[in-house]
From TrEMBL:
EC number in record: 3.6.1.-
InterPro entries: G_CP_dom, P-loop_NTPase, Ribosome_biogen_GTPase_RsgA, RsgA_GTPase_dom
PROSITE patterns attached to this UniProt entry: ENGC_GTPASE, G_CP
Transmembrane in keyword set: no
Molecular-function GO term, any one: rRNA binding
Source species: Planomonospora venezuelensis
Cofactor or coenzyme needed: Zn(2+)
Protein task: One of several proteins that assist in the late maturation steps of the functional core of the 30S ribosomal subunit. Helps release RbfA from mature subunits. May play a role in the assembly of ribosomal proteins into the subunit. Circularly permuted GTPase that catalyzes slow GTP hydrolysis, GTPase activity is stimulated by the 30S ribosomal subunit.
Keyword entries, A-Z: Cytoplasm, GTP-binding, Hydrolase, Metal-binding, Nucleotide-binding, Ribosome biogenesis, RNA-binding, rRNA-binding, Zinc
Signal peptide extent: none
Assembly information from the UniProt record: Monomer. Associates with 30S ribosomal subunit, binds 16S rRNA.
Record-given protein name: Small ribosomal subunit biogenesis GTPase RsgA
GO CC annotation: cytoplasm
Amino acid sequence: MSSPVLSGSYDLPSLGWNGSLAAELPAGTVPARVARVDRGAAEVLCADGHLTAHYSARVRRAAAADPVALPCVGDWAALRRLPEGRFELDALLPRRTAFVRGGVGRTSQQGLSGDSQGQVLAANVDVVFVAEPALHATDTADLGRIERLLALAWESGGQPVVLVTKADLVGDGLDFLMGEVAAAAPGVDVHAVCSLTGQGVDIVRGYLAGTRTAVVLGASGAGKSTLVNALAGEAVMETQQVRAGDGRGRHTTVHRELIPLGGGGLVVDTPGIRRIGLYDMGEGVDRVFSDIEELAARCRFADCGHDSEPGCAVIAAIEDGVLPERRLASWNKLQREAAWMASRTDARLRKELQNKWKVIHKEMRKPGRNRP
Ligand SMILES: Nc1nc2c(ncn2[C@@H]2O[C@H](COP(=O)(O)OP(=O)(O)O)[C@@H](O)[C@H]2O)c(=O)[nH]1
Ligand SMILES: [Mg+2]
Ligand SMILES: [Zn+2]
């Protein structure tokens, strides 16, 4: 049986292939970029086209030991051609960046539950677009969602950018809205986009110059797939049909998927994630709240709790209307979550995680190792 070729052939450099990746490729293998994953197999883009490659026993074993070793969208993989002509995904090349989420959910007892193992949502991503629809972005909870996604984005190693989508829906309110969002995203570019009229789409495309790869995050219905289609110039992703009555769409995108854009660059569309947990987030949270960190440095007491202490620069900024009170609450919440996550996982292990896949994949490439 040969691997089903779903379409044509890909020019590797247009997918981001370069000399430093080539230097990591194990002998006798063929490079491919993971476009989508399913259980036990990945759809990959390579010189032989768009095909399905099942995981080798070695990849399955590594992933069973640590989910971080599981192939994910955006990964560069080494394929091995089996005697029957089929390709097997036999190793991952070192990841340049990785978008890792923690396994955090809620339980009635502790408020939070989770596991200490991260899950890689996308790899080798240069830009993380956080899409928030104009319709909802004034809502306090949604500014909080922007902050949470930005914390993850900073940790991923990619450049975070906030996109206020469906800009056509707010009319004159757009300037105010953009100000609110910008205040929740210090040091981050914020752009208004309307995928229907094309407003802002070229600005978004500008982040994908050359062979840069972006991931689009945001709630279901934020307009992510519609934006991806606008970037591609054709309907590559299915978008939601608006339901009669409440004007909201239904879930459509169910897989994370890497889409090479005709004009250069690649973009990963994602389904809406209901609640995305932090993972190894300390620095990401600090960056999202850099304005509060700066204020806190000016508090009278070094250990100020920014609650009711005298000489608190943070409280003073809230009283002066410079800092929204919501932001202090959001900072406290994400810091607690980051600290809780850190307490669940060994600090040394978490540090190691950042480079773990490099080690794993070096191990995986040793000839003869882990062979049955
Ligand atoms: N008014 C308006 N509607 C949009 C815009 N972009 C997307 N939508 C609509 O919002 C709904 C959800 O879009 P979709 O791209 O499927 O959202 P996703 O779940 O984030 O992928 C669809 O009905 C789109 O037609 C926009 O810029 N303006
Ligand atoms: Mg979608
Ligand atoms: Zn203080």
